[in-house]
Specification:
alpha/beta, globular, 10 helices, about 280 residues, 5-stranded mixed β-sheet
């Protein structure tokens, strides 16, 4: 399991804290409501509030504030990692692992990892992590879809003949078109007046990676499942989040899942995963 941006926080909840889907959902919404509250008016306050929320979550789950990200359990059935961006080089990524690999353990705590994966440049201060005090931002700008990193990590961990049942990817909503000039249609999205917002939306677009993966796995129908709301988030997702309109977000997700295409794809995906039968091997991917 892999995640970037706030998707990385979900990975931590499910893999490290072993929360149920319902527990993770409720905790996630509570944290978002806290950090995007009307009284949070600066990066400094939002960063401090996020740390407070993560530490509070650990305490409620019976873990100390320095609980490690690394799961020291060889019998653990689920592993994951989060993708973050070093402040020293925005073109690169770094994977924070919940499991032992060929690299030496970094000694990262859950709090440090959560702060790093959520540290969107426009909303939070960079996260300082580990004994070497490295600094990271969220990988949301440029690396919001970690599917390629997931496949690369799988190839490094397993043999080429390892079977794969499904590759499942969850998006944060289709961004729609990103116009630079006015369009004749009044229903068309208007061009950006803020060049920085345009660049942010362009870099956060993870649909391009999704389409590339879909083309690359076209010889293996039924292996790649992508779920992302297609209508309603165009240019508005960040506004919904910052205004705390999570009911609107939930309604858009419900409407998407109720469409015939998404419903069929979801049933097929669940059935394929539950069957635990490999569709193909890593080598064929």
């Amino acid at each position: 399991m892999a995640g970037a941006d706030f998707g990385g926080l979900v990975v931590i909840m499910l893999v490290v804290l072993r929360m149920s889907a319902e527990e993770a959902r409720d905790s996630f919404l509570k944290i978002c409501a806290e950090i995007y509250g009307p009284e949070i008016s600066s990066k400094e306050k939002r960063t401090a509030k996020l740390r407070e929320c993560i530490e509070d979550l650990l305490e409620k789950r019976g873990h100390p504030p320095n609980h490690p990200l690394l799961i020291n359990d060889p019998q653990a059935s689920c592993h994951g990692f989060i993708v973050v961006t070093p402040t020293a080089d925005a073109r690169s990524t770094h994977k924070m692992l919940t499991y032992l690999s060929t690299s030496p353990p970094e000694g990262i705590s859950v709090v440090e990892a959560a702060m790093a994966t959520c540290a969107a440049q426009t909303q939070f201060l960079p996260a300082t992590v580990g004994p070497f005090r490295r600094q990271y931002f969220s990988a949301g700008l440029g690396f919001a879809n970690p599917t390629r990193e997931l496949l690369s990590e799988a190839l490094s961990l397993f043999t080429n003949d390892r079977y794969v049942s499904a590759i499942v990817s969850f998006g944060s909503g289709h961004p729609g078109v990103l116009p630079l000039v006015p369009h004749s249609s009044s229903s068309h999205r208007q061009p950006y007046s803020d060049p920085l917002r345009f660049l942010q939306d362009l870099l956060e677009d993870c649909e391009r990676t999704s389409q590339e993966i879909l083309r690359e796995t076209s010889h293996l129908p039924g292996i790649y499942f992508r779920f992302s709301v297609e209508q309603g988030f165009q240019g508005r997702r960040e506004d919904f989040e910052q205004r705390g309109e999570f009911g609107t977000i939930a309604s858009l997700v419900d409407a998407y899942l109720e469409t015939h295409e998404a419903g069929v794809r979801l049933k097929t995906c669940v059935s394929q995963i539950c069957s635990r039968e490999g569709v193909t091997t890593l080598e064929r991917l």
